[in-house]
Amino acid sequence: MHTSSRRRSSRLAGKTVSYREELVSSVSLTNRNQKIRTKREREDSGPETPMDVKVEQANKPHPTKPQSLTSQPTAKSTVVNVSKILERYLGRKMDSSGKAPVVRETVNASQPKNEECPGYFVSFNKYSGVCEWRNEAIFLWVNMGNKDSDVNNEFLEGGRLITWFGGSRMHEQSPVMQRLLNIGKRAARNDLSTNDGIILWCRLFESTKRGFGPYVCMGRVGYHSHFSNTHPLKFIWCLLDYDKLISVHRETCQGKSGTIFEQLSNTKPPISNQLE
Questions:
Q1: Region entry Disordered: which residue ranges (predicted)?
Q2: What is the DSSP string of 158-211?
């Protein structure tokens, strides 16, 4: 039996080739003819149009878009319960320094008793002197005792009043200022739900540590007055939970020095001098 054949091509006349070589040659010729036909078909159909490109792109499979991550909750999208916060933290110093522990712990305190604490951290602007919440609740941050500070916050009238200064970019018509005025005036008239209100958080500068200590919850405040012609804006707030604060001071801070409660009893100018 013969295992080879002879080419009929005059170029390869007399040369013996295998069936495999003939098969490869045949496939190559078929592919070349196919390319020639495809080229002729394209030439006959004319140049490619934008519509052809769109159709071709539409027929291509699109990669699956990654599922968007759940956005981190903010203070403005979170509801806090003022009455529950005061029940747990009024007159108490936080265990850790900074605003973040205050925000985290107060959000946890606002949850129902039978509900687990949220496993997330609420984001907020740590550089602002105000922390707004979704409901009619606001936190005011106050630094005290730092002689090198640009503004001097102090208690007045034996601690029943306190001064507070807005941020450098805040003006009387700022949305946050309008909200402060609205909620503060309603709080002074006792026209708010017990779950709402403005909570004052103070921290004292500790000279030995050359920094501020943890914040202390000084309770709710109500609007007393403000000065629209000053920059930054100056407010005077009434401490609505003053009597309870004094009671807490006597129970927990008796004999201790270097506490925020010492600021309450310091002699300050009469309120009439502050309004000039």
A1: 23-76
A2: GGTEEEEE--TT--TTSHHHHHHHHHHHHHHTT-S-TT-EEEEEEEEEETTTTE
Supply the angle between the helices 99-109 and 82-89 in degrees, to the nearest 10.
110
Q: How far is the C-alpha of 206 from the C-alpha of 146, rounded, in Å?
A: 8
- Tell me the Cα Rg of the chain: 38
Task: In whole angstroms, give the CA distance from residue 240 to residue 58.
Answer: 66
* pTM for this predicted structure: 0.68
Give the integer Cα–Cα distance in Å for 176 and 138.
10
Go through the chain and tell me how many residues it has.
276
Tokens found for residue 11: 């170029």
Low-confidence ranges of the chain (pLDDT < 50): 4-12, 17, 19, 23-24, 53, 55, 62-69, 119, 267, 269-276
- One-letter amino acid for residue 178 of the chain: Q
Distance CA 240, CA 45 (A): 85
Residues 6 or more apart from 204 whose CB is under 8 A from it? 144, 145, 212, 213, 216, 258, 259, 260, 263
Residues 6 or more apart whose Cβ sits within 8 Å of residue 164: 129, 140, 142, 153, 234, 235, 236, 237
Burial class (CB in 10 A: 0-12, 13-18, 19+), 55: exposed
Q: Are 218 and 243 in contact, with CB atoms under 8 Å apart?
A: no
